[in-house]
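Q: Given only this backbone (87 positions), what sequence would you predict?
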């Protein structure tokens, strides 16, 4: 399960994101959570130490993670720290 942390971002390619969305139920109820299947992502972490590198983002790893989506406004909403990029 992916971390919900303001200092961690997960980068996913659009094709993998669309495949994960296709695996979710077609509809949901207001604020209903659902966990996706594994998605291949790159995990970046922000350095929060009191050093010269503070605030910089570093590639932490590449792995398959599951994410909690939430049904809002008629669609499944990803967590705020999941970033989708073009293939």
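A: Predicted residues:
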């Amino acid at each position: 399960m992916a971390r919900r942390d303001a200092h961690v971002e997960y980068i996913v390619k659009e094709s993998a994101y669309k495949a994960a969305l296709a695996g979710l139920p077609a509809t949901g109820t207001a604020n209903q959570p659902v966990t996706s299947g594994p998605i291949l992502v790159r995990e970046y972490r922000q350095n929060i130490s009191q050093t010269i590198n503070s605030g910089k983002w570093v590639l932490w790893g590449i792995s398959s993670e599951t994410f909690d989506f939430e049904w809002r406004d008629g669609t499944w909403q990803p967590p705020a720290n999941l970033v989708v990029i073009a293939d």
